[in-house]
Amino acid sequence: MKNTAATFKKAKATGEKLSMLTAYDYTTARLVDGAGINAILVGDSLGMVMLGYDDTISVTMEDMIHHSAAVARGAKNALVVTDMPFMSYQTSVYDAVVNAGRLMKDGRAGAVKLEGGSEFIEHISAIVKASIPVMGHIGLTPQSVNAFGGFKVQGKTDAAAQKLIDDAKALEDAGAFSIVVECVPAELGKKITEAVGIPVIGIGAGRDCDGQVLVYQDMLAMYDKVKPKFVKVYSNIGEQMTAAFKAYDEEVKKGLFPADQNTF
Ligand code: KIV
Fold this sequence. Notes:
Elements lengths: L4 H10 L3 E5 L3 H9 L4 E4 L3 H4 L11 H14 L4 E5 L9 H13 L5 E5 L5 H9 L4 E6 L5 H4 L9 H17 L3 E5 L3 H10 L4 E4 L7 E4 L1 H4 L17 H18 L10
Parallel strand pairs: 1-2, 1-8, 2-3, 3-4, 4-5, 5-6, 6-7, 7-8
Helix pairs in contact: 2-4, 5-6, 8-9
The protein binds 3-methyl-2-oxobutanoic acid (KIV).
């Protein structure tokens, strides 16, 4: 069944847990979609895992549109949520609506995600008014890495925790259909989840969230530059790829590949 922003909201009411994984290309999107994952996030993490930057700051609208359109072609049932990159919405409400529209029209996203809390309420309600579903993202918001001074757990003081709960409520009031909460203590993840009537998708926010999201290269051990504690490696695909590449290299160099059955 096709997942939409509406089915996400319904899942909160029924208590059904939601699964989300990143994908950035057609082939991976088909595999993720075929596994029954509810939503595919075309995250701006692609700046790191696909393009080799140290953070997400340099990712452009063109990068996001290019990868989103490829994912959308491979996703039959999963909801495609595409990230609004750094400075595509922070600059004005007008820019936010225009760029969210481009991710829908050219990137064929089913929803957009943007980082930030109450400071972006006007932007979010304007996008929602344009009939574009918005997923919020609070906690460790990687586009603010320079303001945070690194990738650090957020919401550790009472005041910071309360600000995140207030932000989540403000996002819901602005019309967001769901919220990603990243890298906060599990107890706070639970409080935020209980405070709102829309699904909270956690990444490093404990098991009481309404759903979970991971970067697929992390859960398949394909990217080792950052290894957050919240990642579980489900399969050592990175190692298996290296082994296969080595076997191919060896066979080519020894003249064993192509064999008769690979030859016309
Ligand atoms: O860009 C991304 O992949 C994300 C996830 C880490 C939630 O925003």
